């Protein structure tokens, strides 16, 4: 059973206290060593070196550039969800200089990281249908709270199967049809038990952003709500809730800034990570 609204027992991952270092690497058990494996392993090494040498020589003689495939932002971004530490994708603390109402500085603390999954759990059916053209290879997400613990925000990434033209077409469609402002295309929150966000459900969604990237095969999204689990009758997209002079309860509470700021922080971190992995060091 979820904890009563407002019950906060500290940061957690998968409903348990977070460990000092978390990664997405899955460890595998190592079988006991057997004596007969030594000679076999040596023979495999000799054979392997011969094959590698032959392949390298062949590539050199024929000029085969495929011997060392070039890493691009698209190929790299498609694997970061399982190849880099969780704390890199979703930092324990996010800082948003000037990201709050009136240009105030904001800081968000991670409450928990959800297990990676397909898109069926984190996206409503209509939003999944909207993203069908680019496919869903994997989805990762986490939930944060602000420094006052008055708001909670789920942020996530949909890693797609699309190429650059596919992502550009999706981005153009979102812009031309105003899809990012449609209430029936809001992402779902992640409400980890035993945290401040335990009562963060679909009816508590207050503000959101969905943004298909064009330089990477990723759709970044975020959805925010009140930490006291109150229901919100009229959710408002982050773009409208952050406009100067916005007077709705959602805008006045800064929940549009929460969704936008957390999404900005995660997106910027993703871009830096992909750049570091694809560009050679100077």
UniProtKB/TrEMBL annotation:
This is Uncharacterized protein. Residues 1-33, 236-282 are annotated as: Disordered. It comes from the Bacteria. Keywords: Membrane, Transmembrane, Transmembrane helix. It comes from Kitasatospora albolonga. Residues 236-248 have a biased composition (Low complexity). The lineage of its organism: Bacteria, Bacillati, Actinomycetota, Actinomycetes, Kitasatosporales. The chain crosses the membrane at residues 40-61.
């Amino acid at each position: 059973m979820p904890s009563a609204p407002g019950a906060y027992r500290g940061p957690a991952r998968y409903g348990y206290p977070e460990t000092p270092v978390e990664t997405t690497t899955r460890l595998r058990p190592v079988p006991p060593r057997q004596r007969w494996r030594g000679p076999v392993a040596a023979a495999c090494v000799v054979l392997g070196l011969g094959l590698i040498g032959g392949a390298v020589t062949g590539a050199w003689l024929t000029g085969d550039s495929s011997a060392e495939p070039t890493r691009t932002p698209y190929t790299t971004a498609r694997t970061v969800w399982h190849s880099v530490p969780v704390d890199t994708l979703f930092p324990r603390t996010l800082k948003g200089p000037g990201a709050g109402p009136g240009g105030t500085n904001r800081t968000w603390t991670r409450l928990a990281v959800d297990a990676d999954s397909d898109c069926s759990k984190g996206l409503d059916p209509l939003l999944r249908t909207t993203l069908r053209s680019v496919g869903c290879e994997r989805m990762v997400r986490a939930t944060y709270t602000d420094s006052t613990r008055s708001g909670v925000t789920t942020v996530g990434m949909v890693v797609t199967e699309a190429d650059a033209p596919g992502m550009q077409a999706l981005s153009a469609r979102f812009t031309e049809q105003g899809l990012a402002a449609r209430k029936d295309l809001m992402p779902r929150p992640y409400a980890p038990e035993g945290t401040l966000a335990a009562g963060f459900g679909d009816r508590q969604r207050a503000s959101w952003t969905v943004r298909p990237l064009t330089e990477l095969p990723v759709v970044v999204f975020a959805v925010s709500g009140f930490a006291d689990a109150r229901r919100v009758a009229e959710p408002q997209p982050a773009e409208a809730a952050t406009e100067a002079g916005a007077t709705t309860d959602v805008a006045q509470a800064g929940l549009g800034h929460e969704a936008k700021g957390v999404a900005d922080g995660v997106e910027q971190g993703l871009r830096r990570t992909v750049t570091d992995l694809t560009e050679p060091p100077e």
